[in-house]
Write a structure and sequence with these properties.
Elements: H1 2-24, H2 31-52, H3 66-86, E1 93-97, E2 103-107, H4 108-132, H5 142-146
């Protein structure tokens, strides 16, 4: 299970890094996409915090300055790799409060996969925003990453 999650998080890191680089090269970044990417970073951070039992530093829809994205992204990745490296049981159940303060329990495996899937969903929304605004799309397909 560790190699599987390490590869997924490596792919996730690659995709997010490509998006950050693309935004850094834009003259007029799209506000909606900026909000979505900040949210993607925040969600990854919040799920990591839930897994390690800490309070998150960011709010769900907190907007970050583009210059801070790389540092937040790197820290998210570092924490996720630390979690997967130190995991002894991916079926371990973890209690956490959601954004409305309701108590839930999921397995570590479910929570880690959710981070990846959630990020993919928001990258898809960003791609749609780019397409709708006639901005060149970034190729982030998994098969291209593996080539």
């Amino acid at each position: 299970m560790k190699p599987f999650f390490n590869e997924l998080f490596d792919y996730n890191f690659y995709c997010n890094k490509k998006i950050i680089e693309h935004f850094l090269g834009m003259d007029n970044p799209l506000e909606k996409s900026e909000e979505l990417f900040s949210h993607l970073l925040n969600a990854h951070h919040i799920w990591n915090a839930r897994i390690v039992g800490k309070l998150p530093e960011y709010e769900e829809w907190q907007k970050h300055d583009l210059k801070d994205w790389s540092d937040i992204h790197y820290e998210n990745q570092r924490t996720s790799f630390e979690i997967t490296t130190n995991a002894e049981d991916f079926e371990k159940r973890i209690d956490y409060d959601n954004s409305e303060g309701r108590l839930f329990t999921n397995t570590l495996q479910d929570m880690l996969f959710h981070i990846i899937n959630y990020s993919t969903n928001h990258r898809g929304q960003i791609a749609t925003d780019f397409r709708n605004n006639k901005i060149e799309l970034i190729v982030l397909d998994y098969v291209y990453y593996k080539r």
